[in-house]
Amino acid sequence: MATDVTAQAPDGTVLRPLKQDEWDKWYDSLMRAFGGVPESAEERSLWKRLTEVDHSLGVWDGDACVGTAGAFSFRLTVPGGAAVPTAGVTMVGVAATHRRRGVLTSMMRRQLDDVRASGRPLAALTASEPAIYGRFGYGAATHGLNIEIDTARVRLAVPPGTDEVRLRYAVPAEAVEVCEAVYARTVEERPGMIERLPGWEQIALLDAESNREGASPLQCVVAERDGEAVGYARFQVKPEWDTNGPAGTVVLRDTQALDPAAHAALWRFLFGIDLTSKLTAYGRPTDEAWQYLVSDIRRCGLRVRDALYVRLVDVGAALQARTYQAPLDVVLDVEDAFCPWNEGRWRLTGDAKGASCERTDDQADLALSVRELGSAYLGGVTLGALGAAGRVRELRPGALAEASTAFASTVAPWLPHGF
Which among 133, 183, 232, 309 is annotated as catalytic? Predict the structure, then answer.
């Protein structure tokens, strides 16, 4: 919770927790900072319900809101399957009239102090501009795959059992509980996934006509085996025609499956929708299984993009909240100028069963900043790669390879949706 303290911010502005009756003015300031394009009434209403006012901050210049920052109370899956309390940093914006005056820094300072006071060891965000948040200790920890598949020329080789999966169309709003039950069963299997709080299931159903760009209303299919839901896909179809005939696009919004056969059945369906020859999707897992079923990966238009940025607010608590693929005993010399309580040497010991991380005076094996720890924390960015970039220094021969192996995840971390 944001402490109920009003503080002087740069240039005589005032930084303080948001009040419920200020939300509309606060949100209007945010929308203007992001270009001023209005959202649908449905989307605005949903974000108003989801905003955690107690964890939101505003910077005010007189009656004008000139800075916004919020945080959601998430639980983020980490390697080993634990769900760790995390501040989902969101709705950060500064008025163009007040840029380069320290407004953002003042909000980040106050927010991380509040997150620490609340006992949450992690903060995470998605960055509108990657260059902004590194100086506050956030490191890129997950990536998403954007795809554009030529389904007229690419085929799928499906695994045994695929034909046993039955698909049925469902009204998206009526199938939301079934889909959420499938989603909930997948959360602990992949680092970076978020336990959805009540109300967050509605994000996937937002379907304003103004945002469709010529595509159909949202559609949904549910995959079932023996009467039990084992997967789902939400998508739109954008009809198009050229001189050769139909050339429509399937726009995949969301899909989850509980096993390989259900996954293959859903993707085979999406590949085969009549009057279409292209499938697009945004931010899918970088190791998603369909890539190993296709006949021609070069015709799948793969593009990787950064997604979730992670910040260790409490280094000791965060590092012992996850498990490690291989036995590990390493002393980390951590640099953290923005949150100096993290600075110094930490002994991390752990394995696949658990970990401990305590202060130590022992000689350091690796030296790195909290930003690198954030990047490596979910197991998708290796400490070895960061070392090759000169961002992790090896002080004991062999320590970097040992730690890099231990920190890795067997599956790529993935953020399933923005916030």
Answer: 133
